[in-house]
Fold this protein.
Amino acid sequence: MRICSGIFLSLSQVLAVVLFCSTAYSSEGLEWGHFRVRPALSLSELYTDNVYQDHTDVRSDYITTLAPKLSLDFAFAVKNYITAQYEGEFRYYKNADNFNKDTHHAGLFWTWETPKGSTLKLGARADFDSIQPYSATDRHKDFVEEEVFAETLLKVSAITDLGLRYGHLSQNFRNPLDAINEFDRDTVTLSILYRRFSNEAFLLEYTYYFQNNNDLSGPSTDMNSHIIYLGSQWDPTAKLSGTLKMGYYLTKLEAGDNSDGFAMEADLTYRFSEITQFKAIAFRRLVRSSIAARETGDFYVSTGGSLSAYYSKWDPLNLRMGFFYTGNRFSQGDTQFSERKDSFYSAAIEAKHAFRERLVFLLRYEYRLNNSNISAFEYSENRGEARISFAL
């Protein structure tokens, strides 16, 4: 996608007005009257020794990224407000000129909370993004992803919450050659939270979605899925916090074999001490394949997770170490890539220092490795990054 120079001018004008007219600093952003503005900006420089993520054509590159953010809140009342958001990312490559890109993410949301704690949220978002090239002659696969949604959490009783969410998601590509990846998806999720204990709730969740492929030139890739979870949710104030869900999924394809099996999602944080905490993420789910992202088949089963450790003894200097793994098993097919299996590993360490709370400096190193039974998809990569971020 092309760089939009007008974005920089518009952002600078908005920030100038905000800094000139604001009357008060809040804990997050600038406030005056019913308005709150939260601007942020980050600049990073990243080195990679395998920019094409290829096992044969291995080339290094330097990537400069400028990422502005802007959020505007207008409050009708204390718990009744509208939020408009924008996030941009402008990425420049020193050598791989065809990799230069910009992305834009915009959203508009209305949130209302009743005196009893029930909430209603309506929103719409649009993401202008692209899937990266994989060689010096490859191109970006530009797409627009749009979503409208409505969600509510009803306080049925002092210990029971009922949640309902509906969303319609569309993904459309700019180039007709990528139309095979386009789709519309309607998703409905129903959840029940039962708070038997003060810091823990039992969770029952059911999700149904229907996905319609918009390209009629080839075999249908339409699918509908049912996913049911049972689990627990722990409040942020507890020593163990987060969500653990385990269940079952069933996916039916209009043309092709059905798939079913064990599903899970976990996002847990354990506070070992005041200065040390651990975070674990785990998942097993069915994912719709995207040919534009060098994936094969109609879908694949993805299983993986991560484990991170945070250490803050020298606060405001904080350290993080993390390990991530995902194993993807692609659907059967009659192509040369049938029975493809990928195992992706990532290990990273980073140091983050906050100056006066609003200015943050970060250093990060990451090693990536993708093993596959199809050699064309194998690669290893070393990445080093320095980033400075400012937020009001």
